[in-house]
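Changelog note: in this version the structure field was regenerated for every chain. One regenerated record is shown below for reference.
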Amino acid sequence: MDTITIKRRELKKLIRETFEDVLSDRKDLISEALLEAMEDIGLAKAIESGRTGQFVDTKEFKERLTSRIKRIK
């Protein structure tokens, strides 16, 4: 394998062009990455807002859940 020498500026340009090609050719990758990031942020916010430090007894939780299910039916 041969060794090549490339100037920093040329390498930067080459990387930028390659990145632009990938972005334009594979827009699905960007869409998926953005969607995953938004889902992660939403989940993190939901977890954080749920952390109140107040815990409910298991029996009480089941009773409330059963009550709400009965109201829906």
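Spot check on this record: Residues 8-72 form one domain. The chain has a mean pLDDT of 87.
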